[in-house]
Amino acid sequence: MPINPDAPTDKPETEQMVVIHRTLRREFRNLPSLVAAVRPADTARARVVGDHLALVLAMLHEHHEAEDMFLWPVLMERVPLEKDLIGLMETQHQAIADAVAAIGSGLPAWTAQADATARDRIADALRGLDEALTVHLDLEESRVLPLMHEHLTVPEWLVPQKHAMKNGPKTLAGKLNLAGMVLEDATPRQRAWFLGEMPAPARVLWRLVGARRYLTYARTVRAAEAAATG
What we know:
It is a single chain. Helix content is 82%, strand content 0%. It has nine helices and no strands. The relative contact order is 0.16.
């Protein structure tokens, strides 16, 4: 079902992408302070924040990988006059991917020891990633989403979503927490759309245990900052 009931059915509804972007913006805005607030040697808190960071990094990776594989090549072919813009999207993706890989490579050592130097290095890298991601998403939403709306078919638009769902978290907990992150700031219609895209058993599971589980998860992750600064 569409988010906007008045949206044309023969065009991609790009608001769906904005919903995912909003989740990424919120999480990467919060992560630097969450990491920075973990006390040295507090490995329990480092694991809580580190596991959440790994989940968000994986979400960003899958989102961009799907665009790289399925959207940019089509737009390059359909809108050759915008090849410089699409090329910039690809360049920004690569820079973001490099930052994600660098942060991810430092996570195991930090979560194991909660070393202050490693913590500060990751927090600084996350601040830079947040800035780069904000610039990228702003440009994509203002310049590229209109191109997708006009030049992609609905089936082409849906391919990256299916890819991301197939290649998302492997554990049930990860799937539920990812759904919770997307639904957290969703409007009622955005919520109905996202839940409608989930398989029926997953929707039932979300309503039975997922929503409650996510509230506990979010409180635990965000309590890491409060506990460290309190």
